[in-house]
Amino acid sequence: MSILAQRLARPEIVALEPFDIAAQANGSFTPDAIKLDANENPFPPLSEGPLAAGLNRYPEPQPERLTRAMSALYGVEPANVVVTRGADDAIDMLVRAFCRPGQDAVAIPKPTFSAYSHFARVQGARIVHVPLSENFGFDADAYLEVLKGEPNLKLAFICSPNNPTGNEVDPALVLRVADALPNTIIVLDEAYLEFSETASLAANASSRDNLVVLRTLSKAFGLAGARIGCAIGNPDLIGLAARALPPYPLPSLSIEAAMAALAPSRRPIHEQRIARIKADRERLVPLLEQSAIVKSVRSGGGNFLFLEVHDPAALAAKLRGLGIRVRFRPYAAPGGVRLTIGTEQENAAALAAFGVPGSDEKVRRAEIVRETRETKIAVALDLERAEPRIIATGIPFYDHMLDQVAAHAGFSLVLSCDGDLDIDGHHSIEDCAIAVGTALGRALGDKRGIGRFGFALPMDETEAQVLIDLSGRPFSRFEGEFETSHIGEYPTEMTPHVFRSLADGLGAAVHVRVQGENDHHKTEACFKAFGRALRQAVRREGDALPSTKGML
Ligand code: PMP
After folding, report:
1. Which residue in 341, 210, 336 sits closest to 275, CA to CA?
2. CA-CA-CA-CA dihedral for 254, 258, 260, 262, to nearest 10
């Protein structure tokens, strides 16, 4: 047992017996045991579908698969993680586990996230505010100076990147504070860390006595509505703190949502989204600095910007009229405004409200998740960008082929497939083609302004011809023969199949004709030519719908 956690925890928590719930016996039974122990209703909810299944049962208090997935995500062991209803709940849990009302204190920087003082007040803990430096920087010496000799200082919060100012705290400073306050638990809130370049201290928290790191799926994984976060620390400290949680803290639906979001096949898309948000955050800074409304713009490591504006009341009225919501943060700075980075359209609307012309570039992007028992595929495709191209189908030659399509068509493609390659590549190859075709069709939207038709021709000794019509009517013709059965792990017989799946998914007529000597060349030529044909067909040439029918 961590002596420190034992010593710092409220005596009531140390003495508390684990909550007496039926789930304690879960480990002694198989999942199909007859369950008459928890006063559950035997009938599942009346709604259809997989979400309803099992909802009549209480969830696992700390589902092992989720703890495992989150510990892997943050690079620690499952025993270092307690999953909570958002990081909010972890803050509340720590305050309730460690702070005796009217006696114990928590240190809270100023300005920072308001939940620390909220939960401290609810618990009746004393709050010692420690001002951040002039530029909202974290000054470890000043922090320690204010806290010197503070009796019963149980928790010291540090938020990095800081909400609402975005400042990142050098991990070395956090460790210095932890070293200097051996009788206090340092709570490092890394809720926004994925949007910053700062290193996590999760691994240090696992091995130290007095450091807890908070993480959340709300921000980087877009799961704010599921309420899934966690506290990371040494197992004894985490175990003690978790006693303050209710018996079944995590709703089953949220557990499923978190497991789905953490599926390895979805990872590249989440990374892509984070990269976009970070890029947009930086893109917006000089634009907002042009605004007559804005005094200063501060970027940082979050998915938001911190502005200081001249006339917050006027801005509030204007934004209200436009139906745009931002957070006014006068407690952080006079005229302080926190502006979250949104989608391109949302950012453009915000820029326009600040009187700055954004770009009126059309967005032609689609993100698709296609999951069956055979394959789990996630695709993000952006017709307005050429990069990145990150393709992982599990079949290297096919990755190369899809990369040829995207490169020659000139679009960004992020695709990840977790398929049943233990059987063979068939399902993965076919389903990826369907998913790419579907994503292309979605990204094209109403098809206004596109070229619609495309064709392409020769490659070395090989001649490949691909003709495309993005007509909305799937049709596929493939003329060509292959001598060999496989190229790497890729079966050559799949090529006609791939183009049919692409045509079906995309809703296009795709005619492929290939002849030559070398199967590798021939296959590659088909994919390249398809990319080139697609490049012409998807290119925007104006605003007209390229059909006399009035729809495509
Ligand atoms: N920490 C910080 C710094 C935050 O800004 C927030 C939410 N705004 C949280 C923690 C809580 O996140 P959640 O409860 O959604 O995980």
Report:
1. 341
2. 180
Residue 415: predicted pLDDT: 97
pLDDT of res. 480: 96
Q: 404 and 333 in one domain?
A: no
On whether both 111 and 160 belong to a single domain, the answer is yes
- Same domain assignment for residues 257 and 275: no
Q: Ligand 1, residues 70, 213, 216: which to mutate, most atoms within 8 A of Cβ?
A: 216
**Ligand 1 neighbour 224 (Cβ under 6 A):** yes
Q: Is residue 545 part of a domain?
A: no
The reply to whether 405 and 495 lie within a common domain is yes
Q: Which backbone phi and psi does 379 adopt, to 5 degrees?
A: -130, 135
Cis peptide before 111 (omega within 30 of 0): yes
pLDDT the model gives residue 44: 87
User: CB under 8 Å to 201, separation ≥6 — which residues?
Assistant: 171, 174, 175, 188, 190, 211, 213
83 phi/psi in degrees, rounded to 5: -85, 135
What integer pLDDT is reported at residue 443 of this predicted model?
A: 96
Paired tokens of 268: 């590249």
Closest CA to 153 of 176, 122, 120, 175: 120
Tell me, yes or no, whether 67 lies in a domain.
yes
Looking at the structure, do residues 528 and 440 belong to the same domain, yes or no? Answer: yes
The answer on 417 and 383 residing in a single domain is yes
C-alpha closest to that of 292 among 325, 271, 273, 315: 315
* Residue whose structure tokens are 């506290």: 231
Q: How many CB atoms lie within 10 A of CB 508?
A: 26
The sign one gets for the Cα dihedral 40, 42, 45, 49 is: positive
What Rg value do the Cα atoms of the chain yield, rounded? Answer: 28
Spans in the chain with pLDDT lower than 70: 1-2, 50, 360-361
Residue 486, both tokens: 């496989």
What single string gives the DSSP state of each residue in 297-313? EE--SSSEEEEEES-HH
Give the model's pLDDT for residue 1: 52
Q: How many domains does the chain have?
A: 3
CB contact burial 348-361 (16+ within 10 A = b; e otherwise)? bbbbebbebebeee
How many H helices and E strands in the chain?
17, 21
* Whether residue 273 sits in one domain with residue 256: no
Residues 283 and 248 reside in one and the same domain? no
Q: How far away, in angstroms, is 159 Cα from ligand 1 center? A: 10
Long-range contacts of 480-485 (CB under 8 A, 24+ apart): 480/512, 480/513, 480/514, 480/515, 480/522, 480/526, 482/519, 482/522, 482/523, 483/519, 484/519
231 lines ligand 1 (CB under 6 A): no
Cα-to-centroid distance, 191 and ligand 1 (Å): 6
Where among 262, 286, 311 does a domain terminate?
A: 262
d(CA 164, CA 474): 50
Nearest to 259 by CA among 37, 63, 477: 63
User: Which atom from ligand 1 is nearest to the alpha carbon of 219?
Assistant: 15
Nearest by Cα to 69 from 225, 224, 230, 185: 230
From ligand 1's centre to the CA of 60, what distance in Å? 24
Quote the domain boundaries for residue 370. Answer: 365-538
